[in-house]
Amino acid sequence: MTGDPVPDLDVSAAVADAHRREWAFVLAATARVARDIDVAEECVQDAYVAALDAWSRQGVPRNPAAWLTTTARRRALDAQRRDRILRAKLPLLIEPGSVAGSGGPAADDPAAAGETADPDEDVIADDRLRLVFTCCHPALAREAQVALTLRLVCGLTTAEIAQAFLVSEPTMAARVTRAKKKISAARIPYRVPGPAELPDRLDAVLTVVHLLYTTGHTAPAGPDLVRGDLVERAIGLARMLRELMPDEREVSGLLALLLLTDARRATRAGADGRLLLLQEQDRSRWNRAAIAEGIGLVTGALRGRTGRPPGAAGLDRPGRFILQAAIAAVHAEAPSYGETDWPQLLRLYGELLKAWPTPVVALNRAVVHAMVAGPEAGLADIEGVERDGRLAGYRYLPAAKADLLRRLGRHQDAARAYRIALDLTDNDAERAFLAGRITEVCAGPADGG
After folding, report:
1. CA 9, 15, 17, 19 torsion: positive or negative?
2. Strand ranges, E, within 211-299
3. Distance of CA 392 to the CA centre of its chain
4. In a domain? residue 216
5. Which of 3, 138, 296, 318 lies most in the core, judged by the most C-beta atoms within 10 Å?
6. What's the domain count of the chain?
7. How far is the C-alpha of 37 from the C-alpha of 180, rounded, in Å?
8. What is the pLDDT of residue 436?
9. pLDDT: which is higher, 155 or 302
10. 322 is in which domain, residue-wise?
C-alpha cells in the first residue's frame, strides 16, 4: 500500500513538490539506463504526468522519488527495446534476407548487452554527479556546459539560469537546446571521465555547483530568501566531489566556501522574514561546526596540504574558490562586524580579481574598498564597473551604489539607484528591504550638495 487516495489538489501539490526536490535525482538515474539525455528527460516528464493519475487513485507513495525513478526507468527500457526491435527488423523490411543474424541486438548496444553499466562508472556512485560530468564535456562551450547542467541536473528553470548569466531567457533557452543537440550529435557517452580527462571538466563542474548554491542562497524570485533544497544539493555535490578528488585544492576550497557561507543561513532573515544585513546578524547563532570545518578545509588548501608532491602544477597559487573561501573565513572569524579585518579582505579581493577578473568580483572589491578608504573611494570603483557595462541588469550593482550614496548623504541619488535595483529584483525579501531603504532616504534630510 502506498497510501490512501487524496484530493486532486493535494496530489498536484505532491507532484509539484517532488518535481522541485527530486527532478535531478530521477533524471540522473534514468539517464544511466537511457544513455541519452533527451530520451531520459522525456521519460521523466512522462513519469511525472503518470504520477498525477496514479497517485490520485492509489495515494501518494511514501517514497515519491523511488516511484518516479522506477516509472521513468521502465519507460526508458521500453524505448530501448522498441528501438532495438526496429533496428533489427528494418534491414529485413528493406532487403529481406540480406543481413545475416540481424534479428539479434547490435554488438555495440550497451542496453542490448544485458543493460550493464561500464565498470568505470562505479567510481562515482551518485548518478547526479555522473550526469554533471557528462554535461560538462569539453566538446561543449563552457557557458553551454554550465547552463545545460544547471537545467538538467540541478532542475533550475531557464529563467533562473538566464538571470545567473545576465542574459535573456530566449538566449539561454537556445543555448541549452544547442548543447543537448551537440551531446546527441557527437555521441558524448554517459560515463565518468578518466583521470586524464578530469582537468578539462573540473572547473566547469565546480562552477555548476557554485552557481547552484548561489541560486539557493538567495532565491531569484518568490517569497523565501533561501531555497534550502538547492543549497543542500550543492553542498552534497561538493562533498561527493571532495570524496572523489581529495587532492584537488579547488574542490576543498569550494566545499569550504559553501560551508562558511551557509553557516549564516539561520540569521539572514528575521522572524518576520525581513532581510538582515551582515552587521545586523546574531553571530552567536552562526553554525560553529560548519565554520570550523570550512576553516580547516581552506587552511589546508592554502597551505597546499592535498597529498600532491611538492612543486606540483598550480600548487603555489590559490584559485578562485580557495580565495573566496578565505574571504568567507575572515567574515566568519570576526567577533563582530566592526572588528572585521577589512584591509585583509581588500588584499584577498585583489588576489581574487587577478585569479578571476570578472565585474562581479570588481563590484565586491569596491564595497570592501569603501570600508577601508571610505564611501567615495568605493563609489569611484563602482562607477568604473558601471562604465564597463557587463553588469547592466545585475541588481546588486545599483543596490551597492545606492548604499554608498546613502552613506554620503546624497539621498536623492540614492533613492534613484534603489529604485533601479528594486525594478531588477523579484525576491520578496530583497524587494521589501529595498522599498524600506527608499522610504528611509526619501524621509531623510535634503542632499548637502
Report:
1. negative
2. 221-222
3. 22
4. yes
5. 318
6. 3
7. 7
8. 97
9. 302
10. 255-267+284-343
Give pLDDT, residue 89. Answer: 65
DSSP code per residue over 412-449? HHHHHHHHHHHHT-EEHHHHHHHHHHHHHHHHSPPP--
Could you tell me if 137 and 148 are in contact, meaning their C-beta atoms sit under 8 angstroms apart? Answer: no
pLDDT of 290 over the 70 cut:
yes
77-104: pLDDT as tens digits = 998 888 777 777 666 555 554 444 434 3
Q: Which triple of cell numbers denotes residue 17?
A: 513538490
Same domain, yes or no: 174 and 262: no
Query: Per the domain annotation, does 365 fall within a domain?
Result: no
Nearest to 394 by CA among 230, 209, 158, 162: 162
295 and 237 in a common domain: no
**What residue ranges in 184-327 does DSSP mark as E strands?**
221-222
Residues 232 and 262 in one domain: no
Q: pLDDT per residue over 296-329, tens digit each?
A: 999 999 987 544 443 444 446 899 999 999 999 9
In a domain, 156, yes or no: yes
Q: Are residues 85 and 138 in the same domain?
A: no
Q: Is 39 left (phi over 0), alpha (psi -120 to 50) or beta?
A: alpha
Q: Which residue has the higher pLDDT, 13 or 449?
A: 13
CB neighbours of residue 124 within 10 Å: 20
Residue reference for cell 560515463: 191
Give φ, ψ of 222 to 5 degrees. Answer: 105, 175
